[in-house]
Amino acid sequence: MDKNNGKFTKPYDTTIFAYTVLKRLGCGKVDTFEQRLKSQKAQYFAQLFKISPPYIFGLYLRGPYSSDLAHDLYAIRDKDINIDISKFVPEELEERFINLKKFISDMGVRELELASTLHWLLKVANFNENKAKEKLQEWKGASTKELKEAFDLVLKL
Amino acid sequence: MNTLNKVTIEDIKRIVPDMEDIKKLKKDEPLFKIVSENLSHVETDELVDIEIALRKCERTGFFKN
Q1: By the 8 A CB rule, do A18 and A43 touch?
Q2: Residue B47 touches partner A, C-beta closer than 8 Å
Q3: pTM for the model
Q4: A109 near A32, Cβ under 8 Å?
Q5: Which of A148, A117, A132, A143 is nearest to A41 (CA)?
């Protein structure tokens, strides 16, 4: 059920800009679960890198998730909108984008899920490191290697 | 009174927004949502706002006037 009748949860240009960032990252699609997960996590990190207008994320089954973002991505898909993927005008903004792209470029679905979940636990839920580790192991079955990689990534932020 | 019969697909969607997740849920798997009042991850940024404003001007033809 579309309670907003196909409208976005944010102003039009704000939503389209968030989508533009995702498209430049190779995300934004919602046809498969993997695409949806990548879009959600890419948006989460894009906000942290101060590239994208913010959505509120809660922690769901597969990590940070924004239902408003999901709504908007589906609405965009249904509208068939042309996107301007040219570089951003402020140089600093474009540099942030390049850094973001480097940060997530080698991350698969599992790494995105673990790193974003860890970040959310530490920075949004304010868990200490031990508790965050414990939850990643309990909820995600994260191995020691995966935990280390996730922490290494989050520490770069 | 058994209220389970009154649970609709819309009720489930509110808890699990992504229907694909429902298919993957195993029996007894905990389903949770943690919501924090900490909104530090939703701070706006001036440069982002500027870029959005510029694109809006471009889209609406403001610069052509």
Answers
A1: yes
A2: yes
A3: 0.81
A4: no
A5: A117
ipTM of the complex as predicted:
0.87
- Tell me if A16 and B55 make a contact (CB, 8 A cut-off): yes
pLDDT digits (tens, 9 = 90+) for B5-60: 566 666 665 655 565 555 555 443 444 555 555 666 667 899 999 999 999 998 88
Contact assignment for B20 to A36 by CB distance below 8 Å: yes
**A65 contacts in B (CB within 8 Å)?**
17-18
d(CA A63, CA A79): 28
Q: Which residue of A has its CA nearest to B15?
A: A60
Give the relative orientation of helices A109-119 and A129-140 as an angle to the nearest 10 degrees. 140
How many other CB atoms sit within 10 Å of the CB of residue A64? 27
Q: Which residues of chain A make contact with B17, given a CB cutoff of 8 A?
A: 60, 65, 67, 70
Task: Tell the residue number behind the tokens 């695409």, with chain if given.
Answer: A35
